[in-house]
Amino acid sequence: MKKIFKFILNTIPRPILIRLSIVARPIIAFLLKGNKFTDPIDGNSFRMFLPYGYGTQRNNVLSPSTLSLERHRLLWLYLQNETNFFQSELDSDAVDSNPNRIKIGDTKTNSKLKVLHFAPEQEFYKRFKKQANLDYTTTDLLSPLADVKADICNLPFEDNQYDMILCNHVLEHIPDDTKAMQELYRVMKPGGMGIFQIPQDLKREVTFSDDSITDQKERAKIFGQYDHVRVYGRDYFNKLRSIGFRVEEVDYTNTIPADLVEKYCLAKGEIIPVVYK
């Protein structure tokens, strides 16, 4: 199975993969029903998760029902437990179980959160679209799920527009990531929040890139994926700070019980880069 998934990932273009997965997902989910692992996004449980990886395949990481990976499930749990992202401000009588949760947007009004989501993931797209408390816009150059086809280095949005920006596993694809970060900063509202996850080698102090490596197999081996242009190190956080963001390096798996980290198939020690303007 691992060889099949690796072949599919490395040969079929991502937009086509998205369309094919919509058809295959319910069949795979039915066949893998069980109780060993649980996807916290939809609450469904399975006897195994699917393998995933363009180079080295990781076991039990791709949820059969939502097609979420470790980072998606971690992001979901963080937004759900630590922010008001899922809490409609229209429901003013709701009792908040976590009074310390991060308040995104203007909590003094009933206005919707203006959210900009780059390269929207399937597991989030329909759910976020349905949320009454969100004014939700998706953008990407190629994704069939994008409302606005746009270059992240030249966004067609006005300054200071968005309360929340989700830009996850995008910047490693962008040659001029400095310009992309500047654009993210420009369109975020003052006081706004963003989550900019990237594949990161936390043992590496300095980000590595080498444009002379052009062979796709070699790029997949070195960068983790054939269409990545760099491997981010720990200096990623300071680069975001140099743009003007205030950055929190959140090790959220450290706050989750070990049995749930295993049950949800999370990557222990993965850092969530949470930024503010």
**Rg over CA atoms:** 19 Å
Uncertain spans? none
Oligomer: single chain
Span of the ends, CA to CA: 44 Å
The CATH C-level name of the largest domain is Alpha Beta
Q: What is the beta-strand fraction?
A: 15-25%
How large is the count of helical segments?
Answer: 8
What pattern of helices and strands is seen along the backbone? HHEEEEHEHEEEHEHHEHE
CATH H-tier superfamily of the largest domain = Vaccinia Virus protein VP39
Q: Based on the coordinates given, report the CATH architecture of the largest domain.
A: 3-Layer(aba) Sandwich
In the CATH hierarchy, the third-tier topology of the largest domain is known as Rossmann fold
Q: What overall geometry do the principal axes of the alpha carbons give?
A: globular
Query: What fraction, in percent, of the residue positions are helical?
Result: 25-40%
Helix/strand-derived category reads alpha/beta
Largest sheet at a glance?
7 strands, mixed
Summed up, the domain count is 2
Main sheet strand line-up: 7-6-5-8-9-11-10
Q: Summarize model confidence as the mean pLDDT.
A: 87
The tally of strands reads 11
Give an account of the 3D structure.
With 277 residues, this protein is α/β, with parallel strands linked by helices. It folds into two domains: 2-62, no CATH class; 70-276, Rossmann fold (3-Layer(aba) Sandwich), CATH 3.40.50.150. Helix content is 30%, strand content 20%. The protein is built from eight helices and eleven strands. The chain has helices at residues 2-11, 14-31, 70-82, 122-130, 177-187, 216-223, 236-243, 258-263, and strands spanning 33-38, 45-46, 50-52, 58-62, 113-118, 134-140, 148-149, 162-167, 188-195, 246-250, 272-276. It has a seven-stranded mixed sheet, sandwiched between helices. Strands 1-2 form a two-stranded antiparallel ribbon. Helix 5 (177-187) links the parallel strand 8 and strand 9 (188-195). The mean pLDDT is 87. GO terms for molecular function: methyltransferase activity. Residues 130-195 form the Methyltransferase type domain. Keywords: Methyltransferase, Transferase. This is Methyltransferase domain-containing protein. Pfam families: Methyltransf_11 (PF08241).
